[in-house]
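We emphasize that the prediction below concerns an isolated chain of 170 residues; any contacts that depend on oligomerization or on bound cofactors are therefore not represented. The input was used exactly as deposited, without trimming of termini.
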Amino acid sequence: MIKEYIKEFVKDNKTATITIVIVLAVVMLLATLSGCKADDLIQIKTPPAVQKAIGVESQISLADAGYAWNEWSNHIKLNSERFAAEIEEGRSTLVLVNSLTDMGLSALSGPMQTVPGGAVIVGGVSMLAGIFVRKPGTKKQLEAAWEQGFGEGQAFLNVEEEGDDVGVES
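Result of the prediction step, given as a token string:
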């Protein structure tokens, strides 16, 4: 009796039947998707700088993105600290060299005034000392390190500005 009623209902109400079937199919699809990890299915692209720095593929799953984000953040932090330490060491070396040079020049300035052309000699010695203080290529190395650190820092800041929840697992 119920079977006959359902058959008659389907024949009389085809639109309603199709709607019910579609709704049931969507509900079953949603139930299936809720049971699997969708973050493994979603792929995100990683920038070339990130790929090179932390050794990840060009596309990673959203499930691995949190780990990659933490690695990238640690890489930026570590290299920033190293670069800051190098700059600080360079500044302390500069202060030491300037101090020694000033001390040497002040010690020479008194006796050299009595020698004819003493001021020219002191100036020439100062110029030669200035030439030999810097190593060849130091400026290029510092500029390259600055550019790399700046680029990584800028990329880090750009990613943070785009979304505050980047790298945060919920």
